[in-house]
Fold this sequence. Notes:
Elements: E1 20-27, E2 30-37, E3 44-48, E4 51-52, H1 62-72, H2 78-83
Amino acid sequence: MQRKLLDILACPIDKHYPLELLEFSLREDVIVDGVLLCSECGRYYPITDEIPCMLPDNLRNKKEDLEFLQKWKEKLPEKVVQNGKPWNLSG
Length: 91
């Protein structure tokens, strides 16, 4: 994902703008893995293989989201790991 996309991306649930970006891995100037965070509703949107997954809750894949959280839990804020929406690792 190109950083300049942050200028046009908003949360699909509550339309909050701007979203917070956390970068986990980069290739040149492209974000390969990371996450977009909505400070308004507490949702997270994974960036995997350069593609942000910004689907509404009912279209997201729970298994993939939980695998993403597990893989990056050391780099994610605790509030996302334990309380993030739509799913989290709190149990």
